[in-house]
Amino acid sequence: MIQHKYIDGICIAAALLAALLVLLFSFGEQLGIQKAYRLPAYVERLFDDSRVHSINLEIKDLAAFLENAEEEEYIPCNVEIDGELFQQVGVRAKGNNSLRLSKEYGLSRLSLKLEFDQFQPGGSYYGLDKFSLDSSFQDNSYLKSYLAYSMMDFMAVPSPLCSFVWLQINGEDWGLFLAVEEPEEAFARRNFGRDHGRLYKPDYRSLHAENADLALKYIDDDPASYPNIFENAKFKTSPEAEQALIRALKTLSTGEDLESAVEIDQVLRYFVVQVFVMNWDSYLGPTGHNYFLYEEEGKISILPWDYNLAFGTYALGMSNPIRDPEILINYPINTPAEGQVMLNRPLYHELMKHGEYFAKYHSYFADFLRDYFESGRFQLELRQTAQMIAPYVEKDPTAYCSYEDHLLAVETLESVCLLRAESIKGQLQGEIPATIRGQQEEAEKRLPVELNLRDLGDFADLENAKEKQDAALKRILEKK
Length: 480
Hints:
Shape: globular
Number of strands: 10
Helix content: 40-55%
Strand order of the largest sheet: 1-2-3-4-5-7-6
Radius of gyration: 25 Å
Number of helices: 17
Structural class: alpha+beta
Order of helices and strands: HHEHEEHEEHEEHEHHHEEHHHHHHHH
Largest sheet: 7 strands, mixed, barrel
């Protein structure tokens, strides 16, 4: 028997503590105590990026699906993920120029979207409502999007999860794809909590229009003046939410009191990676799209999306594309776009007009170079991932390139990133001009570059891929 002169008091205290814990667990949220967050199950399942996953799509009329791909309409299919079957999942083709060019070149390897609640209300993959399958269009390395998202995540920018998958269609091998978490409800809950804000994917309805709202410019106080934003809301919005976003854009346009309208640190970290990866198919490019906009409590931030044309390989939509690798690798971090584009991108331009934010942008760049590149993390991640996917690329029946070209692209991508890091370090130290004008006037100060960026993937690969993809498609269509 336990004997202690305070035993009665200890027992009473223990009982009271137990009762208090029960009360807290039962009514903690009402009392303002947040529950410990538990990651949704899909994170450790499909997005375990330490291995290549398997997906099989059962599409009844594949020929009709491909024929109508440009309509981007969902059809039902059954999906088997790592041996587990999900029925009546929506599938459609995705892409802008990639989809158009695939049709033009007669290609059948397309990027896809899978939506679990399209035909089944409440349907999901362990809490995930939608993900895409990226075909690595114009990316012979298969690594550009994967690495760009990894860099964003490293810089604490809320980013889509991704992992490699071996895709089959109707039981026949189709190729190595990248599964990417779509920024929708599950993404918002995972990154911003259950009481998250509003998420938008601004995009142009006409490339030749002004698209001022896509550029995040303030127009007026009428929500109807912002169709590229509000017609692309990922969740149902309210008039109050729309006005909150418009007020943020109005404040941004003034360049004053930006802390009340912009998540400054997150936006600066985003631009560090965005500028590093030389992605002009983006907010900082001529089209100004391929980003997500998040607003919560009247403050906006920008989130990453779509990097198959990053690392200096963007030529689509440019009347006079830059091909010189020395210009691209050394592209200045202070003016990462031409003058007229910069003036029409207030989320970058207005922030950089403030000395404090400009200095912090440089500071984050220095941290990124030191902790991600000089530490050896980048090379380790690239080489381990390349080694993991190599056997799948080698047997990929619909690959845009040969296996030898893939190996060359991986080597080229590693060189591009290391040279880019070296150039930016020189820009931060004042050894290399950090503006377009400065580099034009002192071109001899650029870091010398001798490599061919077309080795990462170019139009010639599309021309050569048709025969291989036709053969793979024929095996599926003739299967009984």
